[in-house]
Design goal:
The complex is a heterodimer of chains A (81) and B (635). Chain A is an all-alpha fold and 81 residues long. In chain A, 69% of the residues lie in helices and 0% in strands. Chain A has 5 helices and no strands. The longest helix of chain A is centred in the N-terminal third of the chain and has 14 residues, at 10-23. In chain B, a hairpin with a 2-residue loop joins strand 2 and strand 3. Chain B has helices at 5-14, 68-78, 92-134, 172-185, 189-203, 228-246, 268-288, 296-316, 341-364, 370-392, 421-446, 457-465, 472-476, 490-500, 512-523, 526-533, 562-582, 584-587, 590-606, 621-624, and strands spanning 24-30, 41-46, 49-56, 60-67, 83-89, 155-156, 256-257, 321-322, 330-332, 396-398, 409-410, 503-509, 629-632. With 635 residues, chain B is an alpha+beta fold. Chain B has a 7-stranded antiparallel beta sheet. In chain B, strands 6-11 form a two-stranded antiparallel sheet. The chains are: A mainly alpha (81), B alpha+beta (635). At the A-B interface, helix 1, helix 2 and helix 3 of A face helix 1, helix 8 and helix 10 of B.
Chain lengths: 81, 635
């Protein structure tokens, strides 16, 4: 959140996810379940919720319903005490 | 401390596949060896990962995050050094906080150096643009500067898989894909998109102001946008992907690898799986070429090249995969050297086994995706590379980690944004100033210092810094003080951990030589084993390693005779250096250096101190599974 407030944009986040996914053997990360579940877990760890979660999830998924579902799955699976 | 948003999200991606285990944090002390490791080394293991700080070229202390098995192999097998392990009992919460703090620092540090690399890429690209504008010859800003070592033009990944010559015949898979794209997006869409990207490239200019004004710290993610060179290379790659599709470019000559051996034929189930993946990939590519994501170009180019590789595989009824290795890959040299036979044999067996396992996994997958296909592709690349190296004696390319096809291509000058000479020179001056300023700031944050910022002090700073200051003692059992103590020395720090923290058990992972000798002592005559393995001339474990200083006797397991062996090693080192001097005109300085270093590292042995263990060019995995000797401690 602090990062977004400070001017970081979703495009840079998507680029970061892309670079990390490539290191795991994935170029088309928008189609990769494990990568997107990891993004969902990251949202939970960053305490993203409500409308912000909806907006960010949609932005990362890029309109792909399956991608949004995988993000949601990772988000729900992540346990934060 | 809360993680920043970006760090937390990326940590979520990094955590893929990490299973929860019993709560503990292991403190590792790696014993000394010669060279840059004469003081030993320290690390922390959490779950399957090891975190350790290393003094890298350029004088920075950088955090590494490495899989434990990989770490163990490097240190106990290749470097032949034993590791002592102090297992600290902690709560789940403490373990998670420490792991997250190391991960966060790792990501932040990676990001800082990524920003620096982007700024260097900007300098290199602007140098190229200035040269184009003023028609001066291109001179790199510094040796090795520029994107991936080129004098300015960014390297575009994926573009190199295609043939761009004027007489290339259209590829039928891309003709079919182009038709599918035009059905969905309309005829003329591709040409229109290419023109739009060309206009974006023409309008591209360096950022007028730096995005991040605050000085870097270890605990704050830098804010940045993609650099000038980065934005250009993504646009240019996307443009070239659309051009490859619009012109239905065929694959370049030699980018498909295959093998005539019978076991390289496609099995029936593999044909079915490949056909299904090919259909899904084509459908996905129709979406991908119209995507707005910045890195779409590379994904589309690799996807299209794979589409052709799949078609060729099905037509030939045998596996054909893209040559995935990057330019300038590291390589195993001297493949013909007789001492390398055992190593290459095992490498071949291993690569073959991994390749066939990946093929089995592909067949077994419910749905084949990029993950499964890339596993086969990468394993096939490694296997075919080893086979070709053994068959022809040429160097064998190797690549650490996942191997995703590179297909690099130098940006043609015609694609570069055009700027007038004055504006380009002004932008270059700004970019240079930013780059040198950031490099200086990063030196201040990450610079190595023998005492205050070394592999030990940085570990404790991160480990104890992960916890609320007033809870460190409760959570770890105590504190390890670095200031005004000798705890910055790795072996001293290990004792400090045992004394201060809640250490439940102490283990040792013996070095390869010690492991193998223990097995020999158990089954052979002890005196015979000792005499044979005590020296480099008759040892069956150690093979002459050209990277080691010259020596005759191992002294790590010889305590009382150590000064005598040390004296012999010293004399032998001097003798080798003198012999090397005579052969200097023919052999170069290698023998002189090895002899002089050998004599130097023998000096501590005269005083009962052992540093040198001998290192291995290769350790076979069958004996590399070192045992764990444990000494349990009471709480």
């Amino acid at each position: 959140v602090q990062w977004l407030r400070s001017g970081g944009d979703v495009a840079s986040l998507r680029a970061g996810i892309g670079e990390l996914a490539r290191k795991k053997g994935i170029t088309d990360w928008e189609q990769d379940q494990k990568t997107l579940e990891g993004v969902g877990r990251g949202f939970k760890q960053a305490s993203i919720s409500g409308q912000r979660y909806t907006d960010l999830s949609a932005a990362v998924a890029g309109g792909n319903l399956q991608a949004a579902e995988w993000i949601r799955k990772g988000y729900k699976a992540e346990r934060v005490d | 401390m809360r993680s920043s948003f970006a760090a937390a999200v990326l940590m979520g991606v990094m955590a893929v596949g990490v299973a929860a285990q019993a709560a503990h944090v292991d403190y590792l002390h790696v014993e000394a060896n010669v060279g840059g490791s004469s003081g030993g080394h320290a690390a922390v293991r959490i779950d399957d990962y090891v975190y350790h700080y290393r003094n890298v070229a350029g004088g920075a202390l950088r955090l590494s995050r490495q899989e434990f098995e990989n770490f163990r192999y490097v240190y106990t097998v290749a470097e032949n050094r034993s590791i002592r392990v102090g297992r600290i009992d902690v709560s789940d919460d403490t373990r998670d906080r420490v792991r997250d703090h190391f991960n966060r620092r790792y990501l932040i540090e990676q990001e800082h150096y990524h920003v620096l690399a982007m700024q260097r890429d900007d300098v290199a690209m602007l140098t190229r643009i200035v040269a184009a504008a003023t028609l001066e010859p291109v001179v790199p800003a510094r040796p090795g500067a520029g994107p991936r070592g080129h004098a300015g033009a960014p390297v575009l990944r994926g573009v190199g898989f295609f043939a761009w010559g004027p007489d290339a015949n259209p590829d039928r898979s891309l003709v079919s894909l182009r038709a599918a794209v035009e059905r969905v997006r309309g005829e003329g869409w591709l040409v229109g998109r290419i023109a739009a990207i060309d206009a974006e490239i023409a309008a591209l200019r360096p950022d007028a102001v730096a995005f991040e004004a605050r000085p870097p710290t270890r605990d704050r993610m830098p804010i940045h946008a993609a650099g000038f060179a980065g934005r250009f290379s993504r646009l240019a790659t996307a443009r070239m992907a659309l051009a490859a599709l619009a012109q239905a470019r065929p694959l370049a000559s030699g980018v498909l690898l295959s093998e005539a051996a019978p076991d390289w034929r496609l099995a029936g189930a593999e044909r079915t799986a490949l056909r299904a993946y090919g259909v899904a990939l084509e459908r996905r590519l129709v979406e991908l070429v119209g995507s707005t994501r910045a890195d779409r170009g590379e994904a589309a180019l690799i996807g299209m090249a794979r589409l052709i590789a799949i078609r060729e595989s099905l037509a030939a009824e045998r596996w054909r995969v893209l040559d995935a290795f990057p330019r300038g890959s590291e390589a195993i040299e001297d493949v013909d050297h007789p001492g390398r036979g055992e190593f290459l044999g095992e490498l071949h067996r291993h690569a073959r086994s991994v390749s066939f396992d990946a093929r089995k996994a592909l067949i077994a997958a419910e749905t084949v995706g990029e993950r499964e296909y890339n596993a086969v592709e990468a394993a096939a690349n490694r296997y075919l590379e080893v086979r070709a190296g053994i068959a022809t004696g040429r160097d064998i390319r190797v690549h650490g980690g996942f191997l995703v096809p590179y297909g690099e291509f130098d940006t043609p000058r015609v694609l570069l944004p055009r700027m007038d000479a004055e504006a380009a020179q002004a932008a270059l001056a700004v970019a240079r100033e930013r780059e040198t300023g950031l490099a200086r700031s990063l030196d201040a944050v990450y610079g190595y210092d023998l005492i205050s910022q070394n592999c030990v002090s940085a570990i404790f700073d991160t480990l104890e810094g992960a916890l609320p200051p007033d809870e460190v003692v409760d959570r770890l059992g105590g504190r390890v003080e670095i200031r005004n103590t000798l705890n910055f020395v790795p072996f001293v720090s290990f004792d400090a951990v045992l004394q201060s923290y809640r250490v439940a058990r102490v283990d040792e992972i013996p070095s390869l030589r010690r492991t193998q000798m223990a097995a020999m002592y158990a089954r052979e005559n002890s005196a015979k084993v000792y005499l044979r393995e005590s020296n480099t001339l008759t040892s069956s474990v150690y093979r002459d390693n050209p990277r080691d200083p010259f020596f005759l006797f191992f002294t790590d397991d010889a305590i009382w005779p150590r000064p005598i062996y040390g004296a012999i090693n010293f004399i032998a080192g001097i003798g080798q250096a003198a012999f090397g001097l005579l052969r200097l005109p023919f052999e170069g300085p290698r023998e002189v250096v090895a002899g002089a270093q050998g004599a130097f590292f023998s000096l501590p042995e005269l005083f009962f101190v052992n540093l040198r263990k001998g290192s291995l060019d290769y350790g076979p995995s069958s004996v590399a599974r070192t045992g764990l000797q444990s000494e349990h401690r009471a709480h």
